[in-house]
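> @MW can you paste both from yesterday?
MW: sure, first one:
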Amino acid sequence: MKHFTSEDWIDYVRDVQSPAMTAQMKEHLAQCDECQKSFRLWAAVNKAATKDLEYVPPSDAVRIAKSLFEPTKPQSFGNLVAKLIFDSAQQPVTVGVRGSVSICRQLLYQYGQRFIDLRVEGHPSSKEVSLTGQIQQSFGQPESIPVTLCREEGPIQQTETNPRGEFHMVFVPEEGLHLEIDMNEKKIRVRVPEISGPGN
C-alpha cells in the first residue's frame, strides 16, 4: 500500500489541497493505520497553531518590544505591485526534495510590511498546477483576505485566506497571470510564476 507523505498530511489538515486529492486521502485514511498516526500528529500541530493565533501578549510586553524598534514606513513599489525578494528557480536544486515527479517553484514577495509566500507546483501527467500561498503581515492579521487569480482580460477564479493567511488554487497555467490581493480597499498585484518541467 502506498502511503502519503508528512507533507501531504500537513496540507490535508490545513485544507490547502484540491478537492480530488482531499477525497483520495480521506478514503486512504479509513484503511491505513500508519497514515492515521501521521494524520493525528499533524492535526494536533495544526490545532495548536490555530490556538496560538488567539494568544494576546501582555500590553506591557508589546509596549517594551515596540520601544526597541523604530517605526518602519511602509515601502511603495509602484502601482501596488509587490516586490520579488526570493525565487527558488534562482537557487541550486536540493537533492531529493519532493521527489522527482513534481515540479515546484517557490517565491516570496514583499509589499510594505506584508509578505506573500507562493508555492506553485505542477505534475508531468497533468496540465493543471496547484498554487498554495500565505499572506503574512506584522500587524492585525484579518480573518480572511480575498485573493483573485487574473489574466489581463479579467478575473479567472477567486478564493479567500484562512485565519493563518493561507489560500489554495488549482488552474491551467498561461502567460500573464497575476494575483490581486484585496488589502484594505487596495488591490496588491503579485505575478504568478511560470513553472517548467522536463522537456519544456
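MW: second:
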Amino acid sequence: MKTRPYLLLFSVLGLLVSCTSPSDEIQSADAKESLGVDAVDSGRLPVFEFTEEEFDFGLIEEGEVVIHDFKFTNTGDVPLVISAAQGSCGCTVPDYPRTPIAPGAEGVINVSFDSNKRGGKQEKTVTLTANTVPNVHVLKITANVNPKK
C-alpha cells in the first residue's frame, strides 16, 4: 500500500518533465519555419493580385465546355502557395499551380465549365485556399446556357 503514493508521484513527475522536452521545442520551431509562420509574424505575406476575379462567358450552347484563365501576380514579399482549388460543382473544374509562386511572379488558375445538362443562367465559383491573409479567395464565372431542343 505504501508504494502506491510513490508510484503516483513518479507518474505525475514523469508527465510534467515529458511535456516540455527540448525535442518538442525543436519540432515546434521546424513546424513554424515550414509553415512560414515567421513570415506572417513579421508582416511579410504573399498577396494575390488578379487581373480579374469574375468572368462572363456570355451566351453558350448547352454541351459546350468553355475555359477561362484567371491570371494573377504574387505582389507580396514571400512565395505564394495555393494548397487547394475547389469548384462549386462538378461542372466547374479548376487547374492551379502546384509549385510556389515567387514574389513578383505570375500564375494562372485555369477554370473549365461543362454546360452539359445545364440550361439557363449559370453562376459558379472557384474557392482557392492559399497562404495569404485571408487564406480563402473566391473567383466567379457566369454563363447564359442556351438549352438543347
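> thanks! The chain has three helices and eight strands.
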